[in-house]
Write the structure tokens for this entry.
Amino acid sequence: MDDQFGKLKSQGYKLTKQRCEILEALDDSPPLVAEEIFNFVKKHCKVNLSTIYRNLAILQKMGLIRKVNSLGQANQYELVKSNCKHAVECLKCGAKVIFSECFFDQMVAEIEVKTHYKIKKHNLELYGTCPNCA
Amino acid sequence: MDDQFGKLKSQGYKLTKQRCEILEALDDSPPLVAEEIFNFVKKHCKVNLSTIYRNLAILQKMGLIRKVNSLGQANQYELVKSNCKHAVECLKCGAKVIFSECFFDQMVAEIEVKTHYKIKKHNLELYGTCPNCA
DNA sequence: CCCGAAATTAAAATCTTTTGCATTTAAACA
DNA sequence: TGTTTAAATGCAAAAGATTTTAATTTCGGG
């Protein structure tokens, strides 16, 4: 949490109540849509929905949060944990196993060469069946 | 393609021009937003945007297509197929480049061995800066 | 070819997100 | 602690995306 505030400061962003509360809302929470974050922050300080949207864009650009897929129409956001591990999640029981990311890193490197893009962010989700449920 | 039409019929859905064209639009294409699909289908038959949305919901429910994450505000959709395409998207200008999936497949295979999970679904999103924006 | 269920259209309603501008505020510094 | 100012916020309105409603058309079986 503190390192996120630090990251904001170091990049010249102000630590406003609203901004901090947005991060608080997402801390240790399932992905939330803008309105849900708004409802949380509203309880702690004066805030406007547009401020939520503006900050979600900033926090996203900084890599502190990411947009995730959802079934609903509105976008959802979640915190990006500093130690980004990847996991496979079982479609039946939900059990997760973390795998080392060496293959992922290798793949990213290859893709950078092929596409001439510099890859800065990623989102990888894997689902399947675990040995117990198979 | 044909098996998709077959799946629609077998589940009691009619094979309308509009519905078929939506699948055509997504066939062998990077993820598209509703409006892009609309523009494609429009060229081939009379269609309304609401028809696009309604069918995207139906096709999604049937598992023929899936929603994917994007930087923009509109949702994107892609065909669910065994050989799905992945793209890198530029954080600045939004330009996308598709990369072949061989490394991804290799990685998935390795992860299956390591974790003893059978991987059935995935979501991979890559963002960076394209050569022009670098 | 005819019928009924299902699908489509067009328009309007409803969400979601962005923008312009006046006002406020965090934080650097005297 | 007060002053300063770029950055951030609030408010309102617009823009964009998605859904709904009700009337009309179309698919596909008989």
